[in-house]
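QA checklist item 7 of 12: single-chain prediction sanity check.
[x] sequence parsed
[x] length recorded as 431
[x] structure emitted
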Amino acid sequence: MIPKSLVSVLFTLAIGGPILAEETLLILARHAEKQSDAGNPDLTERGLGRAEALADIAAEWNVNAVYSTDFCRTAQTAQPAAVRLGMPIVVQATGSAAADLEGCTPEISSTVLYLDPKIDNTPDLLSWVLDQHAGGAVLIVGHSNTLPRMLLRLGVGVFQIADDEYDRLFMVTHDSTEGARVVETSYGEAPTESPMPEAVESLPIVDRAIAFHGGETYGNSRTRLNIASRSGSFDLEVTRRGPLFDYAVKDSVEDSSRITRADNETTQRIVGGETVELDAETTRRARDFVFARVYFPFLPFGLNDPDVFKLDQGIEHWDAKDLRRVKVTFTPGSSTDASDDYAYWFDPETGRLEQYAYSFGNGTPKGGLRFRRLSNYRRVGGILFFDAGNIGLEGDGDFTVDRIDPEMVGELMHPVSEVKLSAIEVEPLGD
């Protein structure tokens, strides 16, 4: 068969000729435009048109199976291909309370076949598809978080899909002995740009979290503690008097004691009892070093600092708990790591911080993600402290916390370290 569409022609050229008989073609498509971000939205009119364009591609490649998740937006994207090819939509149940194909408009008129509920994650789905359809062609309609996991599992690289990218298409050929090859392309008309929600300086859930963790005490206290992880052991002395701060971090370098101190105006470094002269660059690096050591053990107090912007991303379901997710970004240039992004998950009732994640090294070959789940909560002197289990994912290119969800954490991230606090002392300061 000679493909006719531009997408198919470019794909054939990219892989150097027709697909071999022993290769399986996986057409991975992100669902088309949805009407809203809430619940289980239907496709927009533009999205329905895009779904027809996807059906054209599926028909050209004689797709012999169509897969979708159990949301209206994915099933509606898959339906034109299933109708045109005269086959059912094979649905993988996600377990989400919002998922429901009964009330979709337009309705899902195709026959729907549900996979075994045990096939509830990316590795199992890929194993099933590659086993059941070896040598064939399969269309899988997924989401901005599920498709990158499939591509990573297939071994073809790290990909990110932005929230407003509804035309992303990945053509993957898979051979059981030679591995997989991917061509990244798009389908349908170029998507229109939609306005992004605005990050704000203040959010009620963050204010509640700071109060629950003891923000009033923290704002007028001196705290001493040790924080230990894979990166080393550090003794901290953190003093706050309202907007005034004085932070000191003590560690060792080359068998010499080192103290790095930063307050609102000055920076000092003492190594082996001798004061080290700092120029503008080393001053900046020293302050970044101090702030990085102080930031995490005293979360969530820093989330209302200047240059911090927050975006409420709603409720997510994690391990039988509903948590409110907040994305945090920083004013560009405000620190060395200002290009990294962070996500925090709070108990929506109490405001207790339950877990957080961050990207690092964006734009470098050593980028990655870290995810920390909190444990061993204890309140000392009115301030709530915690330890954390640290897991991660590394690779070339840019990473974003937007892609983190329970499946990514459970399947793709590996243990990195334990972060433990000890020797905690809190001294309230008088007026």
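[x] summary fact logged: DSSP finds nine helices and 20 strands in the chain.
[ ] second reviewer sign-off
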